[in-house]
C-alpha cells in the first residue's frame, strides 16, 4: 500500500474522522491530503498511542511523537494498529465505563477525580478500571460521598476540592427517594433547605433523608418543619 485515506486511519485506530483530522494537524500533516504516506501514518500511530496511554492532550505534546513510542520500521501501519489494540485489550473509554456502570459521563469524571486518576485519558488500563470499580462500590454499596472516597484512596486531605463533593439535583433526589418533584420541594422546605438551589451537598441530602424518614412514619410536613426548625412558611400537605 502506498498510502492511507483518512477513513482507513479512522477504521484502523477505531476513532472518528474529526479525531483523525485533529491528530494530523498536530503532526503538521495537511488534512486536505487524499492519501497519507506510510511514514506519516506511523507518526500518526505513535501519537495515537501517546494520547491513549498517557492521557496527553494535543496542546501538551511539544515533541515528536516518535520519542514517545518506539516503532519498528519493519512493521506496517496495520501491524502497529494491531499491536496497539492488543496492548490496550481490556482498556476502556469513559463512555464505556459510563455504559458499564449505568452512570453519566459527569459521574465518571467525578469518580476518577475522587480516586486520584486523570480525567484526560482517552483509554483507561485494567488497573485504572479496577480502582474505578472499587470507588463505585464504595459509593453505591457503602453510601460514601466523593470526599470520603478521596480520603480512602489518598489519605487525609489537606485541601478539600469542591469538585469532589457529591452534589445532587432535585431530579436525582426525586429518583433516589421515589417521589415527585413537588414532594421534593415540599420536603426541602420542611427541613429548612432552599428550594432555589440547583444541587445539594451530601450533608443537605442527609438532612433531606431525615425529613423523608419522618414523613414515611406518617408525620405531616408541618410536623417535620416544627421538628427540624423550618417554620418560616406555611407548608401545603403534599406527599
Describe it.
- The chain has 239 residues and is mostly helical.
- It folds into three domains: 6-87, no CATH class; 94-164, no CATH class; 168-228, no CATH class.
- It has twelve helices and two strands; from the N terminus they run ααααααααβααβαα.
- It has helices spanning 6-13, 17-26, 38-54, 77-87, 94-101, 105-114, 126-140, 146-154, 170-177, 181-190, 202-216, 221-228, and strands spanning 168-169, 199-200.
- The protein has a two-stranded antiparallel sheet with strand order 1-2.
- The chain starts with 5 loop residues before the first helix and ends in an 11-residue tail after the last helix.
- The model is unreliable at 62-69, 156-164 and 232-239 (pLDDT under 50).
End-to-end Cα distance, whole Å, is 69 Å
Number of strands: 2
Our estimate of the beta-strand percent is under 5%
What average pLDDT do the residues reach?
A: 79
Task: Provide the gyration radius in Å.
Answer: 25 Å
Task: Report on the biggest sheet.
Answer: 2 strands, antiparallel
Percent range for helical residues? 40-55%
Shape: elongated
Helix/sheet category: mainly alpha
Which sequence of SSEs, written as H and E, runs from N to C?
A: HHHHHHHHEHHEHH
Task: Return the domain count.
Answer: 3
- As laid out across the biggest beta sheet, the strand order is 1-2
Number of helices: 12
Q: Which spans of ≥5 residues are poorly predicted at pLDDT below 50?
A: 62-69, 156-164, 232-239
Amino acid at each position: 500500500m502506498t498510502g492511507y485515506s483518512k477513513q482507513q486511519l479512522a477504521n484502523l485506530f477505531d476513532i472518528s474522522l474529526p479525531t483523525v483530522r485533529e491528530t494530523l494537524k498536530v503532526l503538521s500533516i495537511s488534512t486536505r491530503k487524499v492519501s497519507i504516506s506510510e511514514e506519516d501514518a506511523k507518526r500518526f500511530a505513535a501519537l495515537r498511542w501517546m494520547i491513549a496511554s498517557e492521557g496527553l492532550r494535543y496542546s501538551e505534546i511539544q515533541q515528536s511523537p516518535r520519542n514517545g513510542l518506539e516503532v519498528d520500521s519493519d512493521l506496517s501501519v496495520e501491524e502497529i494498529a494491531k499491536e496497539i489494540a492488543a496492548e490496550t485489550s481490556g482498556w476502556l473509554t469513559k463512555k464505556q465505563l459510563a455504559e458499564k456502570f449505568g452512570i453519566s459521563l459527569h459521574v465518571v469524571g467525578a469518580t476518577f477525580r475522587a480516586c486520584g486518576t486523570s480525567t484526560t485519558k482517552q483509554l483507561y488500563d485494567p488497573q485504572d478500571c479496577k480502582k474505578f470499580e472499587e470507588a463505585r462500590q464504595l459509593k453505591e454499596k457503602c453510601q460514601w460521598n466523593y470526599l470520603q472516597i478521596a480520603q480512602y484512596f489518598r489519605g487525609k486531605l489537606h485541601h478539600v476540592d469542591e469538585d469532589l463533593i457529591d452534589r445532587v439535583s432535585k431530579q436525582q433526589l426525586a429518583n433516589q427517594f421515589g417521589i415527585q418533584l413537588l414532594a421534593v420541594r415540599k420536603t426541602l422546605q420542611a427541613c429548612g433547605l432552599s428550594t432555589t438551589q440547583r444541587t445539594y451537598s451530601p450533608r443537605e441530602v442527609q438532612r433531606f433523608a431525615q425529613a423523608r424518614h419522618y414523613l414515611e412514619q406518617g408525620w405531616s410536613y408541618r410536623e417535620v418543619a416544627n421538628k427540624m426548625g423550618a417554620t418560616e412558611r406555611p407548608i401545603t400537605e403534599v406527599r
